[in-house]
Amino acid sequence: MSVVRVLVVDDFARFRDAICSMPSKHPDLLVVAEASDGLEAVHKAEELQPDLIVLDLGMPNLNGLEATRRIRTLSPKSKIIIASLESSADFVQEALRSGAAGYVIKAEISNQLLPAIEAVLQGKHFVMGMNR
Questions:
Q1: What's residue 130's pLDDT?
Q2: Does residue 26 carry a pLDDT above 90?
């Protein structure tokens, strides 16, 4: 498998650090950039065209849903996984309608992120432990 280039986006630095450390155990994942808000995410996605973007839902300047919509246009091959504190079906459905391929709950990120990455890279959707 070739290296998967990842953009990590969250306004909380500790969360970004935690996500960025996960791929160190998986040599096929390479974090190429980080962003701390939605607008920065859109610009970096357009510039870098990453294979995968792990994107927070609630961010300053531009929320994760709007950032996802814009990224889908500017970097259409990038797969997007939304990471959120929200677990309601409404948020999940809106994220998928916006163009995300996966949705994981931050409280379960250490268990859900790698399966979510595997699923979305295979062209599937991943929602809170249920890939389809």
A1: 53
A2: no
